[in-house]
Amino acid sequence: MTIMRKTKPRQNERRRAQPHNIAEKGVTQTLCVDVGGTHVKAAVVDQDGSMVSNHDKVETPHPCSPATLTTIITDLAAQLGQFDRVTIGFPGAVRRGIILTAPNLAAPDGGGNEWRDVDLARIVSERLGVPARLANDGEVQGLGAIAGNGIECILTLGTGMGFALFADGVAAPHLELGQHNAHKKKTYDEYVGHATLERIGAKKWNRHVKNVIDSIRVLANFDCLYLGGGNARLIDFAIPSDVHVVSNETGITGGVRLWDGFSQIRRV
What we know:
The protein is built from nine helices and 15 strands. It is of the alpha/beta class. A hairpin with a 3-residue loop joins β2 and β3 (39-45).
């Protein structure tokens, strides 16, 4: 397994080299894992949302079973120093921390059954020896982006399309909007996913994204919409004042808010 590393500034490297001691410093560090259809990314984050380790990633294998993903997370964790807890952002339907579906990871001929009712947080917790929590990856990235006021949404544009909705900082029950019909019997995943981007080109793909924003505005009547994911950087049209492109790193830093809420983390 090849681990690709995005190094942090030198001062963070020095910080990482020092042993972490909760009793002395009162600081909790979180291993935040962002599972995507293309890459699995991880970093250790402190309580204000700053990364204190390198940002490492590996390519996501296809298909990717629960056992394979657990090994990937364990291997990434071994590269990143000490941490006290784990957050996993997962690309599929999640209810009370239990995985229901994994459309971008499951074997195409297996119907996704290998992921049904998997408690990945418990498995990872037992493997790493620290508590772990898991939520939909769009929800975790949204937690890293939102202000916590009014109706806020996030769309993540990557292998497929992720979605999360928040009311005054509280996540609504998860909707697997990426699997819903968007246009002419194409799902949102198919309409603005990476395969479509490669097939039709960036210019037409941008028109698709603009149509999706218009649809979500009608659906949610949002106060603010955030656009994240690896392909959000390709947006080239003028976006409205209530729509914002956010750093893909919010998929990592939002993991702190799954534990601590809004009291600590800085907005990215």
